[in-house]
Design brief:
Helix content of chain A: 40-55%
Strand content of chain A: 5-15%
Number of strands of chain A: 12
Radius of gyration of chain A: 27 Å
Distance between the termini of chain A: 95 Å
CATH superfamily of the largest domain in chain A: Response regulator
Number of helices of chain A: 13
Shape of chain A: elongated
Number of domains of chain A: 3
Oligomer: homodimer
CATH topology of the largest domain in chain A: Rossmann fold
Largest sheet of chain A: 6 strands, parallel
Largest interface: A-B, 44 and 44 residues
Order of helices and strands of chain A: HHHHHEHEHEHEEHEHEHEHEEHEE
DNA sequence: CTGAAAGCGCTTACAG
DNA sequence: CTGAAAGCGCTTACAG
């Protein structure tokens, strides 16, 4: 039956029932096998250059786009990158997310974000959910995680880069990370204030996450070094950081310790609130008391007086960490596994 | 050969090569077919209640978790929800993202975010990428999209809810949306300022996205209504909104139009910057000039003087939109397809 | 209400 | 360097 109609099944094969253009469509049009198309398109070596070109052309002509779900199922690896950050209400982490996400997208990856609320068991739970998607990579804030989380990160074998923090010492088994030395930054700002002749420098902090505590340690060591450390000048509040809390802390400090001549806040939002409170209370800054912040958040340069602070390279951290992850996902070994991006003291008029 | 060793193939079958616990494992352990497990676990009707319970118990015991990629491939629908927002540098959208994401996660969905930078072709490109993941739902900011984007949203058949805006009139074909009437809010604040005796009220804006323009229209109509509209009192700058720009705009207005007795800024960051500039310039607020903002962003209540503004329910918008989407994804029809969450004038000391 | 079978669209040993 | 075949782990008509 040479003239029999083409069976429906064969006719349908040119497009699947979903109407989507598939690998097989490209293979048929290019006259090669699906396996070859798969290899050619992913730039796998061991494919004839001429074939690669032909397949590429056909693929472009048909407008073929690989199906991420099929790819993930077959390869056991998706094109998702999971990112874990503490909060979305702190501009610091939003900047981190923004820059990392931009870099990852340029590399062909989708970002899956998880907000931990500084809760280690929520972090663990989020990681579990994200690992179900078989992410190709992981970006996590900080180096402190509970044992279960660490185990998950390790046993999943997913490449992982830590953000913001660096391990205390250069160890053999140190994880990949991009950040700066929080302790050094805390000490540097404290020394800066000392160098300006301040003698009674208070440290005021909220949230009290690990990085804040490191800044506190930096402040302590700089004061001890100068021989003027006084434990009662620590004002620590575990509540979330905010302008309002900064104002409250400042008022409290002025009331309890009127002789204080500088306050170093662990984050700019607190310091901005303190600056507003000083205006309200008629406390003159920096004549009576200097005020310093941390992170150089948006608005700090617009305060009255403009805020002295530590500028932290969060956008560059997000980008560099994403780049490092990208190279890890390519199977490469980053030349600098612990990348220190430093910080900068920005002196403005509040000190 | 009754005592022959169990063939390797059968022995292996209890776990796949990946080591993952699969649907088939649960089926075997529960003594039913994979199809039944699939139906029982997804709560599909037409399964014996007793079986559901048994399957559920076995599944829990084995710690089975469905594979999202396999599920997406087979059903042509993932558990992703894509969200499109203009910027991450505006706290407004971060709040929206945060609340939507929280609600969606509680409903079992992963959020895929896309940042459009107020660029309609970038929005289109992002949507294309996201649609590849076959999202179960879509959350998009605003009602204005280019024709290609609208076509994609429509032809993809993916349930979609729009954020922040409401259509001008109640039409039959109106899209699902959750927001408030930007024009009304702009008019309400203007009337509020008029009611306080202000006569020459300027409108200062940045970014100039559609919602800002609606606020401008509201300001215009309220002034026209009062017979005091003057076109030269519009100060529009397409640059991104920021504290610094607010200061610049304010200074410019004071210089060019010293008789102005109130400035209504389209966003709180501009207004905050203006407040700081007023302090710097020695312009007394509200005695000489009233200042009003929009959105009641963080810090506005800490300014000197505290900022009069329009409080917008962005967290509730994100949550309600996610809820509406959740019900659409369940195949339900939302009782209120266009949900108006309103706004509130917050009078503080700057007016 | 339940099951066998096909299929979703890829990747990847395994041969050649 | 290339291809045929199996398999990733589910869902869903189709029968019964």
């Amino acid at each position: 039956m040479p003239n029999a109609p083409i069976p429906a099944k064969t006719a349908l094969k040119s497009h699947r029932s979903t109407g989507r253009i598939t690998l097989s469509d490209v293979a048929r049009a290019a006259g090669v096998s699906p396996s070859t198309v798969s290899r050619a398109l992913r730039g796998e070596r061991a494919v004839d250059p001429a074939l690669i070109e032909r397949v590429q052309a056909v693929s472009d002509k048909l407008g073929y786009v690989p199906d991420p779900a099929a790819r993930a199922l077959a390869s056991q690896r998706s094109n998702h990158v999971a990112i874990l950050i503490p909060l979305l209400s702190n501009a610091l982490f939003v900047d981190l997310l923004d820059s990392a996400q931009k870099t990852l997208r340029a590399g062909g990856y989708q970002t899956l974000m998880g907000v931990t609320h500084y809760d280690s068991s929520e972090e663990e739970q989020l990681l579990r959910e994200q690992l179900l998607h078989r992410p190709a990579g992981l970006l996590v804030t900080g180096l402190d995680h509970n044992p279960a989380t660490r185990k998950l990160m390790h046993s999943s074998q997913v490449p992982c880069v830590h953000l913001m923090d660096l391990p205390a010492a250069q160890r053999e088994d140190a994880p990949y990370c991009v950040g700066f030395r929080q302790t050094d930054a805390g000490a540097a700002m404290t020394r800066h204030l000392l160098a300006q002749g301040r003698k009674r420098i208070a440290f005021a902090a909220a949230q009290l996450d690990p990085r804040v505590m490191q800044r506190l340690f930096g402040w302590r060591s700089a004061l001890q070094e100068a021989g003027v450390y006084e434990p009662t000048l620590e004002f620590l509040n575990p509540a979330p950081s905010s302008l309002a809390l900064g104002g409250i802390l400042f008022e409290q400090i002025m009331q309890q310790r009127p002789a204080v001549d500088a306050v170093f806040f662990c984050n700019d939002d607190l310091a901005q609130g303190a600056l507003m409170a000083a205006l309200r209370l008629g406390v003159s800054v920096p004549a009576q008391v200097a005020i310093a912040g941390f992170n150089d958040l948006t608005g700090s340069d617009q305060m009255l007086p403009p805020l002295t602070t530590v500028r932290t390279p969060r956008a560059r951290i997000g980008e560099a960490a994403a780049q490092m992850l990208l190279s890890l996902m390519r199977g490469e070994t980053p030349p600098v596994p612990q990348l220190d991006l430093g910080f900068e003291i920005v002196q403005r008029q509040s000190s």
